[in-house]
Amino acid sequence: MDAVGMANRRRGGTTAKTWARVDAPAWTALDEATRGAFVKDPEESDARANERAFDASPGTTPRIKLYRDAASWCPYSQKIWMQLEEKRVPYTLERINMRCYGSKPKSFTSKVPSGALPVIELDGRVITESSVIADVIESEFTEHKSLLPYAPGSAEMRRAQTLMRLERALFSRWMQWITSSWSDASAQSMYCETLDAVDAELGAGGGPYFMGAEFTLVDIAYTPFLERMAASILYYKGLKIEGNGGRWPNLDKWFAAMAQRKVYRGIKSDYYTNAHDLPPQLGGCAENGDNVQARDAIDGVNGVDWRLPLGPLNESSMEPWWGVDDPALARMEAARRVIENHVNVTRFAARGCGTPGSPGYSAPLSDPNAKPGEEHIPAVDAALRLVVHAMIKPEITDAAAAPAVSRGESHAVAPTVASLEYLRDRIGVPRDMSYPAARQLRAYLNWMIDALVAV
Ligand SMILES: N[C@@H](CCC(=O)N[C@@H](CS)C(=O)NCC(=O)O)C(=O)O
């Protein structure tokens, strides 16, 4: 069954229905209404930037070219990305697909036959393996802040090395548990005991970071994996690690401190993206049955979490948010992301009523060769304009307000719904926008989907 057929079946049959709305504002009007309403802090990392000059004089060519994965899924790329940003080492960027969601250009595989990411070119020299790259960056850019400022053989250096080994031990316990349902209880207790050790080390060092008050490469080594563990263990095993509030208090202090770092704010993913990007990379993740409630909340299929009105984001949210919750700003971020790229976003969404691509790729949410349903693009465009308009004027979504759409002859409902669902399920954090913005856009898309289904 194709995407439209699936949508019909789920929605109880929308094939024959058509919708109309004559007053969806034009993109130019939406642009004017939101210009300057969201300005990203330049000190925050920007997943969409192709070059970072930092404090370099204009016209200077960065010594480093970073190759990282296009969807911001790869944890090893995330480490190098964070390191360069934290040190403010200028770099240019080339995005390369991971095999599970696309092909790699010959220009890359001819330099790196294994195809593995991350890679840097330093003054034209190709360097692979994230741990080697991290060491090279530290030793080559000594005029920048050191992220491992300890003398070889010192007690601090030995502690840093011990903590790095503990990270690998935690990683392998996570892999054992998350990729298998075999012996779930014992895999859980082995994982949790290792996390106890991590929490104790954070406490012993005085926190909030692994080496105490100072943020170091040790934190960078842990970050992508603690982030992915928090998402995946809740989603597949039903256990809350971040914001647990009890068993791992020092870990919560670490998550809170990390969230204050501007670099990490622009690099952090969300639970939904991580829960769905891991299986294609790992060959599958195993649910244990205790996860159903959390899984449905993260996927936004429980009728609450991706629905208006959205609840507040805070430290005890299902997905903890350790910073300020500013829904109006989050809506503006989401609106600007759609407005600035509306032609591509509309065509992308319309793949939901188009044809699947060939060749396909193993990541279920990725289909780079899919073709949009061309004849439905005007409908998808109009629906997206209504979604953005509602994010600008949220009172439109109040229960007492007039319906967003009416029955009419203009557009078929089913393909529009399939397209909005397609887009909703593929908003990637941080690739497309921040988590608070993605959360708003997902909920406003659902508001529109419900309105379409109800005509
Ligand atoms: N040991 C390597 C591991 C790198 C790695 O596993 N990279 C994965 C992505 S997370 C990769 O490039 N896989 C090939 C692909 O999926 O295209 C490192 O630390 O750099």
Structure notes:
There is one protein chain. This protein has 455 residues and is of the alpha+beta class. It folds into three domains: 166 residues, Globin-like (Orthogonal Bundle); 90 residues, Glutaredoxin (3-Layer(aba) Sandwich); 123 residues, Glutathione S-transferase Yfyf (Class Pi), Chain A, domain 2. It contains 17 helices and eight strands. It has a five-stranded mixed sheet, with helices on one face. A hairpin with a 2-residue loop joins strand 5 and strand 6. Helix 3 runs parallel beside helix 5, helix 3 runs antiparallel to helix 8 and helix 15 packs across helix 17. The two termini are 24 Å apart. The site of glutathione has 13 residues, from helix 3 and helix 5.
Q: What is the fold's blueprint, element by element?
A:
Layout: H1 3-11, E1 18-20, H2 27-34, E2 51-52, E3 64-69, H3 75-87, E4 91-96, H4 106-109, E5 119-122, E6 125-128, H5 130-140, H6 155-178, H7 184-204, H8 217-237, H9 249-259, H10 262-265, H11 271-282, H12 292-298, H13 327-340, H14 342-349, H15 377-392, E7 406-407, E8 411-412, H16 413-424, H17 435-453
Parallel strand pairs: 3-4
Antiparallel strand pairs: 1-7, 1-8, 2-4, 3-5, 5-6
Helix pairs in contact: 1-16, 2-13, 2-15, 3-5, 3-8, 6-7, 6-8, 7-9, 8-11, 13-15, 13-17, 14-15, 15-16, 15-17, 16-17
The chain binds glutathione.
InterPro entries: Glutathione-S-Trfase_C_sf, Glutathione_S-Trfase, Glutathione_S-Trfase_N, GST_Omega/HSP26, Thioredoxin-like_sf
Organism: Ostreococcus tauri (Marine green alga)
Domain GST N-terminal: 62-145
